[in-house]
Design a protein that fits this description.
This protein is of the alpha/beta class. It has one domain: Alpha-Beta Barrel (TIM Barrel), CATH 3.20.20. Helix content is about 30%, strand content about 15%. Helix 1 crosses helix 2, helix 2 packs parallel to helix 4 and helix 3 crosses helix 4.
Amino acid sequence: MNADVGEGSDDAPLYEVVSSVNIACGAHAGDDESMAGAIEHAVKRTISIGAHPGYPDRENMGRKPLDMHRTELRVSIRDQVARLRRIAARWSASITHVKPHGALYNEAAVDPWLATTVADAIGSLKPKPRLIALSGSWLAAAGRSGSLMVADEGFADRRYKKNGTLAPRDTPDALITDPASSAAQALAIARGLPIEPVDGSSVTIHASSICVPRRGLRPRLVPTSQEPS
């Protein structure tokens, strides 16, 4: 299980239940201090550290698409990861994976051109990190085409459309706010069982990693070591 951290909220409970974190790299949120704090928490708990680069748009927290030239976007992603790597070096820690944030993640999931740009940026990093991408997305496909190791991601607290993409945040009931319902969806995804989308009868999400919510998190409702995660 993974979680997005370093975006200005209290992330402490998340470190108790996840095996990896995706740390905001200063473009959409975060700064050197928040990155250092997140890395220190992860190192103390032997949690895998990942970069969470987004569009450079702090005003909208990276949740609105930006029209960026391919070269500019590629440089931005590389620079964000490099910034996190420099800070991680203080603890002799490695950045094991990259998960794009917000609009960049969602757009790359459905836009093959953008997916290739993001995958190329990540693939150009040395050493080459793993890519976390929405299960069944163009980004996951582009990562594999670019010889990246890819972790297909599912979400505990996001509703899906019947085509396997995430329901937009402005869609009614796009977010699952009840912890028990969120845990139930996470378990269904982990077991390969169908879930109910917002626009159809069922959809099955094949994921090797599940993003868990900060909102209303209750560790006792998260799958235990006896359950698939």
